[in-house]
User: What shape does this take?
Amino acid sequence: MKYNVICVLFMFIAQVLVWFQGYAPKYIEWMKQPSIPYLLALPTTFLFIMSIKYGLMGFTSIWSIRIFSFIVGNIVFFIMAKTIVGESLNLKNALSLSLCLVIVLIQIVLKD
Assistant: This one.
C-alpha cells in the first residue's frame, strides 16, 4: 500500500506540472515565456518515471497504473481549472468526474 501512495503522489505532482506546461501559459503572465514549459519537462518526466517505478512495486498490473494516471490527471485538471481559471463543472463533466472516482474505487476494492 505504501508504494501505491507514493506512486499516486508522484502522479499528482507530475500532472500538476503537465497542467502548467499546457494550460498556464494562456492564463498566467509569467508562464508565457516560451522557455518555462521546456524547463518543466525534465522534472515532469522524472516524476512520471518514478510514479511508474513505485506503481510496479505496489499495484498488481500495469493496467492499474495506467488507469490511476488517467484518473489522477482528470482530478488534477478539475482542481487546476477551478482554482486558476475559475471554470466550473457542467453536468456532463461532473458526471464524468464522478465516474473517474468510481473507477478509482473499483481499482482499490477489487483485486486481480
About this structure: Residues 29 and 36 are 11 Å apart (CA to CA). The mean pLDDT is 89. Residues 35-58 form the longest helix (24 residues). Residues 2-109 form one domain.
